[in-house]
Structure formats: C-alpha cells, structure tokens
Amino acid sequence: MKNLLDLFLTFAKIGLFTFGGGYAMISLIENACVERKRWITHDDMMNITVIAESTPGPIAINCATFVGYRQKGLPGALAATFGLILPSFVILYAVSVFLDSFLEIAWIANAFRGIRIAVGILIADAAVHMIRKMKKKPLSCVILLCSFAAMLCVNAFSLRFSSISLMLLAGAVSLTVFLIKNASSGKGSEQP
Amino acid sequence: MIYLDLLIGFLKVGCFAFGGAYGAIPLIRDVVLSYGWLSDERLTDMIAVSESTPGPIMVNLATYVGSSQAGFFGALIATLAVVTPSFLIILLLTILLKTALKNKYVAAVLGGLKPCVIGIVLATGCVMMFRQGVLPLLTESSDYRPLILTAGLALVYFGSRKILKKGLSPIVLILISACAGIAAYGM
Pick from B41, B31, B34: which is nearest to B78 by CA? Predict the structure, then answer.
C-alpha cells in the first residue's frame, strides 16, 4: 500500500510540475524513477522511450504505466497513471469553469487573438522538428509529402476525410510495399 | 448522446495519437470540429492553454473539451478515454508481446504511420497559420494586423535560436504573443 501511494504521489508531482508535456516530462521521470527511487534502470528507461515513440498516446502516460507495472503489477500501473493525470484533470477542469467569463474581459480577449497566431507557429515548428529527426527513406518522404498535400486539400475544400483514415491508408501502403519487396526478393533467392 | 460521443471520439484520439502531443492535435481538431463541440478559435485558444498548464497536452485538451460539453462527468469520460488505449497497449507490450514492435510487419505499418503523422502535423500548422494570419486580410475587414503579428512572432521565435543557445520556449512565445495581441488590438 505504501508503495502504491509512493507511485501515485511521485507521478502526481511529475504531472504537476512539468509544462509543455512530452519530452520535458521524460527527464523528470528519469530523474525520479531511475536516479532517486531506483524503480527502473537507465536501460529500462531508454527502452520505454523507444517503445513510447512507436505506440499511441501521451509519452508520459506510457512511461508511468510501464514504471508502475514493473514496480507493483496492475495496481501499480493504475496508481502511477492516475497520479500523472490527476493534476491535469483538476487544473483544466477549473480552467473550463472559469474560462468563459475570463475571456469576456477585453484585454484578455485581445491577448488570445495574439496567442492564436503563436499556436500555428508552434505546430508548424513541431512538424519541422519531427522531419529533422525522421529517417529519410524514399518511401517515407513520399508518404510525408502525399499526407501533407492530402491534409491541405481536406482543409481547403472542407472534405470529410479524417486524419485517422489517412493514417490507416499510409500504414496499408507501407505494408503493401514491404510485402511486395519481400515477395520479389523471396523469389529472387529461390532462383539458382 | 454526448457521453458516448465523447467516449468514442477520445478513444479514437487515444488509439491513433502517434508522435506525442503535436501528433494528437490534428486528431483532436478533427473530432472536435466534426462534432461541432468547439469553434476553431476556441480550440486554438485551448491548445495554448494546454501548453501553458502542467501535464500532458492531450490529457489537458481532453479534460477541457469533456468539461465544456458535459460538465464533470464529460471531463472524466474524455480524459479516461484518451489515456486508456495507451495504458492497455503498454501493459500488453510489457506483459505479453515483448517483441511485437520488432515484428517486421508491425515495423512496416509503423514505418508508414510515422511520416504520415508528420505530414498531417505540418499541414495542420500551415492551415492554422493561414487561417489566423492571412485570412483576415482577405475578408471584408481586410485586417492586416494578424499578418504583421505572424511575421513578427515567427521572426522572434526562429530568430531567437540564432542568438540564444536553445531559443525561446513555447511558453515564452505564448506570453510574447499575448502581449503583442494586447498591443495590436487594445490600443
């Protein structure tokens, strides 16, 4: 019980003190779980970061679930994950209650007209950062460009085509190309 | 029924949110705009608020959208829905399928998903910059201020990387843009 509480509180603290989500949280989780508490090793941490990149959902949640499970099984995973989301939940719930009356104040509404512009810049910048980190194989580049063009069209003509359908399509294309390559190289090795 | 819509909408987001918070934003935008839960403006405001409050951005957005549509229980359902897929997938991977991600077919599918997510995020960023920065100039009011703000903020944000070692953090950019908004529209 004491361990579960410790997991819960440690991750609640991480949830409360990291701004900007994602990678900012990873260094805090590493500091708490590897260096101070010694719940997992540095190698574990590296592994889970790699896994988190290939699985959906917030990276911090992936880490919390993994550390919690390693420490105390399913109850541990639940305690760590709930600990991590509790501060977000409380804070944003409070924001949602007050935001509307807040936005009626003229200077705050003006501030948000400026802020909306910054958000577009941040998202475009995040994409550029992701492109830099991507392994640039020909197929990846083609998929990236086609997805970009498709998404622009969807927005420009207000088409009803969700990003999820686009992702499924990209996954299917990539799998098909892999299977075709596999089949042709398989044939190649059969021939003497 | 709103609770069911929130549950399904955010489960979808949770299942497909590859590439961290920014990968999730286009999906949340899809869901929120197609159900008509929030206006594009309000959603953009909330992305900034979620970036400036602690915790994972996806969870913050889910809580806000849920609460704005269906109060406390809406917030609870949306938040749990957005984290449940990643919780279950990690459990599955740590308990049963330790090598699933190394499977070549899984790797092939992921190899297509990742660049697709990047393309979607890039397009979303461009569309949002266009809508907020350029479009007001083309409407009847022909408001030129957003365009100047866009150019100025982009210059400050990207220029800061040339001068400072790590550049400005997103939160600092949001603060600067708030001041710029007050100066441009309040005076």
Answer: B31
| CA-based nearest residue in chain A for residue B16 | A56
Report the greatest alpha carbon distance in chain A.
Answer: 79
Q: Do A20 and B171 touch (CB under 8 A)?
A: yes
pTM of the model: 0.83
Q: Which residues of B touch A141 (CB under 8 A)?
A: 115
**pLDDT digits 0-9 by tens, A51-98:** 887 888 888 888 899 999 988 899 999 999 999 999 989 989 988 888
Residue B45 distance to chain A (closest CA, Å): 6
Positive or negative: CA dihedral B123, B124, B126, B131: positive
Token pair of B108, please? 């092939």
Distance (Å, whole) CA B68 – CA A129? 32
Using DSSP, state whether A62 is helix, strand or coil: helix
Whether A57 and B17 have beta carbons less than 8 Å apart is answered as yes
Domain count, chain B: 1
pLDDT in tens, B132-181: 888 888 877 778 888 888 888 888 888 888 888 777 877 888 889 888 88
Span A25-46, pLDDT tens digits: 877 888 888 888 888 888 888 7
In 3D space, the residue among A176, A175, A150 whose CA is nearest the CA of residue A164 turns out to be: A150
**Which residues from chain B sit within 8 angstroms of residue A125, using beta carbons?**
125, 157-158
- Does B105 contact A175 at a Cβ distance shorter than 8 Å? yes
Which structural domain range is residue A172 located in?
135-192
Distance from A133 to chain B by nearest Cα, in Å? 11
Share of chain A above pLDDT 70, in %: 94
Nearest CA in chain B to A113: B181
Residue type, A162: S
Q: Position B143: which residue type?
A: D
Query: Which of A46, A78, A98 marks a domain boundary?
Result: A98
Q: Give the closest residue to B24 by CA, choosing from A21, A156, A152, A83.
A: A21
In this structure, the answer to whether residues A82 and A15 fall within a common structural domain is yes
Measure the CA–CA gap between B85 and B73, rounded to whole angstroms.
19
Nearest to B63 among A93, A106, A112 (CB): A93
Q: Is residue A22 part of a domain?
A: yes
